[in-house]
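My main concern about presentation is that the manuscript never shows what a single data entry looks like. For the editor and my fellow referees, an illustration may be useful. For illustration, here is how one protein appears when written out as sequence plus structure tokens:

***
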Amino acid sequence: MQQGTYENWCKPKEFADTFIGVNIRTGVGNSLVQELANLASGTDLTAGEAIGRSTGRAVGNYLASWMVPFAQVIELERALGMRGLEFKDVAKDPTLSGFDAAASAIARPFRARGFGVSPAEEAAMPAREPVFQESPERVAPLAKVLLGLTLTKADSDEGEYLGKFGYTDFEIGSKSLVPTVRRFENEVVRNALPMIVSIVKRRETKLIKDYENANEETRKQFTQEQYVAEKLRPIIRGALDTAKSSYRGSMAVLRDVPKDDRKYVKAMLDIRKLSGDDMDAAMIEFVERNNRDADPTNAADLSEIYKIGKKYAGIGGKRR
């Protein structure tokens, strides 16, 4: 997926087909779906809204820069336990009004720093959903007050592994203009990463052996790291793109989505309950049973692995 606006990788007409789900394309939810599709598509945003958002962002960032010294008060409240440490998503879903877009963009950097937002209001905001972290939090908030340092939790093991191949949270993360969609899609991708990385690591092991057996000219022109990385990147990118395109649409933000449309989300949540050892064992048995790798974007594959993994978890539990 190339970096850029949402319309670069999602066509308006295809949005309802791929991002929502079969059962909600018609019926009472259709008008709401179309409205969300229009918002998510850059083609239906008015010029006024786009200009308002861009102008407001520039003005807001400039004005907020003058308030940085006063932000120490907010950080002191965090250090004293008066405010939470979790990073919140202060962005609001867009409207087609240029004025509203500008006002929201101007207010956003202030809200992000806690200005004009009470501790209770901040606590009620949705958490940020980065791809490489779950529940991102500030660490040692007093360091921000005394030293000006913002410390955060480390990336997940999967994030650190993919970082070796040049992937960043920003590159992998959703580019949607709709914050509720962006948060949901990032969560979907984050939940898929353990499966994707598990498959990629096995491919990496095979590629290392292939390099060792490669001809002399190949080993002369490419280091092992280059050989492996260049062959793995398309695999990683394909798995990530498939995860995004296949399950954008569970759309948990729509409460009237039938339960059948949430099948994949449930499968992902279930499989995350497995320990790393149980998942590895289940992955191997899956390949033995089906003579292929599991598809991390296929709900049936995930469900089968979860059932196998529960068996290994039960064995482990008995041994303990």
User: Anything to note?
Assistant: Residues 179-212 form the longest helix (34 residues).
